[in-house]
Amino acid sequence: MGPVLAGVLQLLALTAALALVYVPLGTYMARVYTSDRHLRVEKWIYKGIGADPDTRMRWPAYLRAVLGFSLAGVLFLYLLQRLQGVLPGSLGFSSIEPAQAFNTAVSFVTNTNWQSYAGEQAMGPLVQTGGLAVQNFVSAAVGIAVAMALVRGLARTRTGDLGNFWADLVRGTVRVLLPLAFVAALVLVACGVLQNFAGIHEVGQFLGAPQQWNGGAVASQEAIKELGTNGGGYFNANSAHPFENPTPFSNLFEIFLILVIPFALTRTFGVMVGSVRQGWAILATMAAIWVGFVALMMWTEFAHHEGALRIAGASLEGKELRFGVGASSIFAVSTTLTSTGAVDSFHSSYTGFGGGITLLSMMLGEIAPGGTGSGLYGMLILAVIAVFIAGLMVGRTPEYLGKKIGAREIKLAALYILVTPALVLVFTALSMALPTPPHSMLNPGEHGFSEVLYAFTSAANNNGSAFAGLDANTDWYNTTTALAMLLGRFLPMVFVLALAGSLAGQQPVPVTAGTLRTDKPLFAGLLLGAILIIVGLTYFPALALGPLAEGLAS
Amino acid sequence: MTARNENRESEMSTPTPTRAPHSDLPTGHRPDESRVGAGHFDAGQLLAALPQAVRKLDPRVMVRSPVMFVVWVGSLLTTVFACTDPGDWFGWAISAWLWLTVVFANLAEAVAEGRGKAQAETLRRAKTDTVARRLTNGREEQVPGTALGIGDLVVCEAGDVIPGDGDVVEGVASVDESAITGESAPVIRESGGDRSAVTGGTRVLSDRVVVRITTRPGETFIDRMIGLVEGAARQKTPNEIALNILLAALTLVFLLACATLPPFAAWAGTRLTMTVLVALLVCLIPTTIGALLSAIGIAGMDRLVQRNVLAMSGRAVEAAGDVSTLLLDKTGTITLGNRQAAAFVPVRGTTEAEVADAAQLSSLADETPEGRSVVVLAKGGYGLRERHQGEIVGAEWVAFTAQTRMSGVDVDGRSIRKGAAGSVVAWVRERGGEVAEDAEDAVRTISESGGTPLLVAVEDERGARVLGVIHLKDVVKDGMRERFAELRRMGIRTVMITGDNPRTAKAIADEAGVDDFLAEATPEDKMALIQREQAGGKLVAMTGDGTNDAPALAQADVGVAMNTGTSAAKEAGNMVDLDSNPTKLIEIVEIGKQLLITRGALTTFSIANDVAKYFAIIPALFAAVYPGLGRLNIMALSSPDSAILSAVVFNALIIVALVPLSLRGVRYRPMSADRMLRRNLAIYGLGGLVAPFVGIKIIDLLISLIPGIG
């Protein structure tokens, strides 16, 4: 079987598996987020944190809860790292420096998991499992909670009530993420992923130096790393490390975990707004982008470098031989189209176009299918923009799901789509213009530029993957990427929740033949076109000077 | 029209209608196929608007459109830089075309406003300074029209111009309202009832009326009209505001993309000049729609004005596009204003032909539409040649009057009468005749079926007797069924409002094909219906003319008051139809939709245009340092300078090219939202992608022909 065929078959198998769980998982999540009952364990948690899960929150209250909870998370993680040296379970690693500790705390709370450290050389099990893995769960749950608030805003009428953040947070963790992560961890262990508390072992001499390997609760962290679209690896090599991702099957399974919740959330959305077809349309747009980008990636990685170079394995540089070009392409696109950022290969080593695809994937704003929750709300915001332009073309004041898109709604949606381009472009420009930051680049010319562009694209879009090559552990990059991550995560949430509040208060407009149907292939296509054009136009000059220049040179 | 009007009409024949039924044709069925559209436009208008466009370069005016303000600032910047390097033809050329871009945008707005100005001039002529004859304690005194206050009584006689808006409180007069309606046929204004409102600036043609002034000078209807058509009172509409926000956001995005480019370019090893950056920015920001946005709004109002509809706010025009329920009065909208003879029913012992003959003879002296319809039916259905009063010698004609409610003729010893059942029965009985039982049966049957029976009777040597019955019925206007089907496809529900009983209403509703009807409607019923629809989130449009319509007109999202109506109705509605043609409501909805479609189409076009501009400019900027990027020059433009200039020139010219479209509006035909979206996306989305590739290439070819360039 040729490598191309193998790649295509893996893609088909993955699609089939995702299709299989789409309806049950999506419907289950809709039940979770609409149920009136609390599990006993949830009641304990509510008592423990002193929250009333039955308070109805308007959008400012919901937002305050989101921000308050996340701020507490940042502070806790920061202190945990700063105190690592004096706490047990550190494996002898010292405390983390302030800039890096701040960067890492922000990175995990914002679901970014940008890592300017090497896990196995800096973090003991206490920080890894007790701090980082916990944020892997709750930051994902926060994302879903905000998405649910927006969906409620679309589904509900004449109310300010967007649900209760604490209930959404706890349910998402207890009823969705924990059980799924538990099963996933078992599967990963069965594949050979480590799960122990063995510490560091000396395993003899290779290449003239002592070789060590770390034990740790890797499988459990790996499961939620992918499932919660977090991406922060236990080891520096992330999912390219054999202890995190040992076999082609575990590789495929990890991709499945990355994609399963974001895709299924479109079903949850459809069920909650009372029309699963609306969910299908959003799903179709996401899936089209995902399949299209995977196909492009495979094409550029397989076809690039004619003849001798390909035979010599040129396009395998930076990729694991046990996965091959096809599976690595699927992983790279899936991890950048979601806000995961886990990697099983080095994006820096991809062809110019391949690197460009990973960049563009993130620039789309993590929406196809995007991060847990953030993918859905990002896509719904773009749907609002697309509806606004297209809705005018059918001769009515634009409306989405019966809610009018007026000045206030379009203002919030516009602010949302302004945030990440502003962060990416401004920070990249500053890094290029200031005297010191360019020293972090490994490469000159267009590839060096791509390294910086990639770093801020990844941070502002809460992806967390790195292009490799850039030394990001400097005060400049630790601080600026942390800012990009913070603003890139929470500013959009402010606008999403404000929009949800504004939509929830509306009286819906009944559907007639004069209504723009947002559950039809035509609309899915229109949304796709709008996304590609708007994002493409925003970043075209930057992309041209990085990956396009590189890709077109050969 | 109100329930009261309905009742009045069902008394057989109405008195002479207050207006000529000049607009009985369903509107829109013009020879011109595109239904709404067509406000004419010619290039001369552009030239005439040029001075105004230049005046609008004032930054205080420019700042109202964020997109064009950015272009304005950019033009200033490039001009300053061109001055620092006067030998650089490229800098000057870019500056010149950027200024042209701004001027073209202003031109679009100026042309749109100019059309309103012409209309306002006509109105101003009507508003000459009048001398009012004010009544104070029964004494007349001459005062200037501007000195009148609310509540003053003024006398107007034949030849006088009515000095201000008011209500007739005494007398009846025919009034020439052509100054505001453009309609030359005079209308009747009388005290009391729904035809009492008079408008300042109109002229009394006959008789004498006393008018109570209801508005202050300067706030009259004609003043407001002038303000509206001139655009002086124009405020941005909600959707326009929303679109402006989106355009401002896009402008910001591109501002970011351009402002961050210099450090990127520096790393790549090239320096970008301010001129080039501004050129790139202006090409990317949505200038096409930004330039035309306000013109589209003004032109939308203007299209209504051309149809003799005055919208009191742009908001109402937009709401018209969103309407999902139309409340239509039966009479005058769905059916012809008057009932028409449909059949002759003979009593025992006579034939249909005899009835037809007698009916025709007796109706020759009846000039009401009903009377004429009898003559027409006799001719068409029974082959009776139409006779004229003059050709029958010795005939004594009895004309129809509202008092006798009969018409007829005495000739050759025969008296023939035709008229309302009660009057004719009385006439027969006076002459000792008997009314046959089957005549009474026929009258009852016709009444029950929703029609109006007229009796035909004769007195001759055999005595006075009833010959037969004329069946008058409502006639649904031509093409209404198709029109309602179209509306249904557009997602608009039609509800017929009538004072008829439910059975009659249902019969007509079925025939006309409306979705629903409200029978025996009182103003309260109407109000309740509107509120019910609105509670379900629907937008409702209606027409009305009576004082008792005013609350419903105010409640409706689009309330179109008839100009013939009372001032209360005109105050309550948000539009006034000067033709007083209720069918126009459908056209108003279409114009509202067309306005929104034009905005959406040009926005899509504007954004789609950017793709080609990138392909022109990016390789021009960077192919020197990254030769690979030269491959993006898929248009094979001749030189970097020419490529950038071509994009800027195209960007400016496309505004002028689209001015006619923005003023006329995109072609609109009723169809479902899905089909409409597919069509508009294909034209303006795909068209917007492709057009600039072609346009920029052509401009580049022309530029490269200029010696010394390219």
From TrEMBL, chain A:
Keywords tagged on the record: Cell membrane, Ion transport, Membrane, Potassium, Potassium transport, Transmembrane, Transmembrane helix, Transport
Record Pfam families: KdpA (PF03814)
MF terms in GO: potassium ion binding
Keyword Zinc-finger: no
Protein's cellular compartments: Cell membrane
Transmembrane segments: 61-80, 137-155, 176-198, 252-273, 280-299, 374-394, 415-434, 482-501, 522-544
Subunit structure: The system is composed of three essential subunits: KdpA, KdpB and KdpC.
Family per record: Belongs to the KdpA family.
PANTHER family, alphabetized: POTASSIUM-TRANSPORTING ATPASE A CHAIN, POTASSIUM-TRANSPORTING ATPASE POTASSIUM-BINDING SUBUNIT
Designated name of the protein: Potassium-transporting ATPase potassium-binding subunit
Organism whose genome encodes this protein: Streptomyces doudnae
